[in-house]
Design brief:
Number of helices of chain A: 6
Radius of gyration of chain A: 17 Å
Helix content of chain A: 25-40%
Strand order of the largest sheet of chain A: 6-7-8-3-9
Order of helices and strands of chain A: EEEHEEHEHHHEHEE
Structural class of chain A: alpha/beta
Distance between the termini of chain A: 35 Å
Radius of gyration of chain B: 19 Å
Largest sheet of chain A: 5 strands, parallel
Helix content of chain B: over 70%
Largest interface: A-B, 43 and 35 residues
Low-confidence stretches of chain A: 1-11
Strand content of chain B: under 5%
Oligomer: heterodimer
């Protein structure tokens, strides 16, 4: 990548995200404190932990969806809160609720995502749906698809988005064996291209250069 | 695709969101027809409940139409962000690289086109049924045309604030209705005063000012409220 933004002294040139002394409590219970990590281009960071240890919360904090934390979050060496626009331009988030409208068809859902993120052609839309195994379902309402298929519609966004950073919350839960293999392949390819991935899952990820963050 | 970080312009994102919401409304015809039918039913109940005499009806016609329009817009409000909140689309919207102001505005415009505009278009018919004096049809139509978008924009703030709550019940009406009172007053006064010979332009100017203020400020408030609601 050819980006030459100014870096502060403590972060290395490739760091996309650095977190320092993150602290978060919910309902008078400390979820994590003094949490430090960094994420570079080409890395896959898996956030691990038992139920209720704040995996999703951490992911939402990083994405700016949750403001209830203390500490420092930097995007490419700069405070994240001041560079939200450039951050969101490079971020693709797929949450626990995957953002697929049930009334619309997979095609229409993707068309909207593309309208928000980066322009793509109709052929690319069809190709992306075929790649995630939804050939023939392009025109069915998403409400009539299974949970795993809806998850696949969301995964098609990974193929179309120009984003550098993927933030995925439990993306494996509803996928079948072939879906899991497909997603692992996508994650590895993305990291290989110089992208970065943040993913919360219990699944034993088969991805090269995997970094694990354990939340108790 | 990391190499080509091409992004859509905000105008494209605005249009994509507008199109999407209109498409959803078209596919969920119930949501589209309900407010409209509600408007018709409420407005037709007044002659039955009060009196079918043209003299008495003509006095209250403007108020009845405005209140019916207000209630119909309130009924339709909950659809604005609810489904998006539940399926996660709202998060996608919040995390788009475009100013949330324009995304919210697109949703509000789509919402008004679907729930507000039909009410405005059918209002002369109901006005005729309620024996509104003939000279006031145009005034009523214009004030509704300027006023109902304000109702949608203000209602959007209330919905954005309450979308994260489990049981909303009356709270949406409690938040939204007080904000809508000035619009209601201006709308009904315009009809009443022009019947007594006042100039229409002053009232239209007031309504247009309200619309412009709502257009510029309400989506900002909605956007801030949405960020709080997903927190």
């Amino acid at each position: 990548m050819h980006q030459d933004s100014v870096k502060t002294s403590q972060s290395s040139a490739d760091d996309l995200i650095t977190a320092q002394q993150l602290f978060c409590e919910r309902d008078d219970r400390v979820l994590f404190s003094n949490l430090e990590f960094s994420l570079r281009r080409g890395q896959v960071l898996q956030i691990k932990g038992s139920n209720g240890t704040g995996k999703t919360t951490l992911l939402r904090i990083i994405c700016g969806l949750n403001q209830g934390y203390e500490g420092e979050l930097n995007w490419q060496g700069e405070p994240m809160a001041e560079h939200l626009e450039s951050f969101y331009g490079e971020l693709l988030y797929i949450g626990h609720r995957v953002g697929v409208n049930k009334v619309l068809t997979p095609l229409e859902n993707l068309r909207w995502s593309a309208g928000l993120q980066g322009p793509v052609s109709e052929e690319q839309l069809y190709q992306a749906l075929a790649d995630v195994g939804l050939r023939g379902f392009e025109e069915s309402a998403c409400g009539s698809l299974s949970a795993g298929q809806q998850q696949r519609v969301a995964l098609a966004r990974l193929l179309l988005s120009p984003a550098t950073l993927w933030a995925l919350d439990e993306p494996f839960t509803t996928l079948d064996v072939s879906g899991v293999a497909l997603l692992e392949k996508l994650l590895a390819e993305h990291a290989g291209r110089g992208g970065a991935v943040l993913v919360t899952t219990h699944h034993a990820l088969q991805v090269p250069d995997l970094k694990v963050l354990n939340l108790g | 695709m990391v190499e080509t970080a091409a992004q859509t312009s905000t105008a494209q994102a605005f249009l994509a969101t507008l199109k999407r919401d209109l498409l959803i409304a078209y596919k969920r015809k119930n949501d589209m027809v309900n407010p409209f039918m509600f408007f018709l039913i409420v407005a037709t109940l007044f002659p039955i409940g009060i009196s079918p005499e043209p003299e008495r009806l003509s006095e209250i016609a403007a108020g009845v139409l405005w209140i019916s329009a207000l209630l119909a817009s309130l009924l339709a409000m909950d659809n604005l962000y609810r489904a998006d909140y539940e399926d996660g689309s709202l998060e996608q919207l919040l995390l788009s690289p475009h100013p949330l102001y324009f995304m919210v505005l697109a949703k509000n415009i789509a919402h008004w086109l679907v729930s507000g505009l039909p009410v405005v278009l059918v209002s002369p018919l109901i006005a005729y049924m309620l024996s509104l004096p003939e000279g006031s049809f145009g005034v009523l139509f214009l004030t509704l045309l300027l006023g109902t978008p304000v109702l949608s924009l203000l209602g959007s703030i209330g919905v954005a604030l309450t979308v994260g709550l489990g049981s909303r019940g009356l709270i949406l009406a409690m938040i939204t209705l007080p904000m809508c009172v000035p619009v209601l007053i201006a709308g009904t006064l315009a009809v009443e005063q022009t019947q007594n010979g006042a100039s229409l332009m002053g009232f239209l100017a007031i309504e247009a000012a309200m619309l412009l203020a709502a257009l510029t400020l309400a989506p900002l408030a909605s956007a801030a409220a949405l960020r709080i609601s997903v927190n």
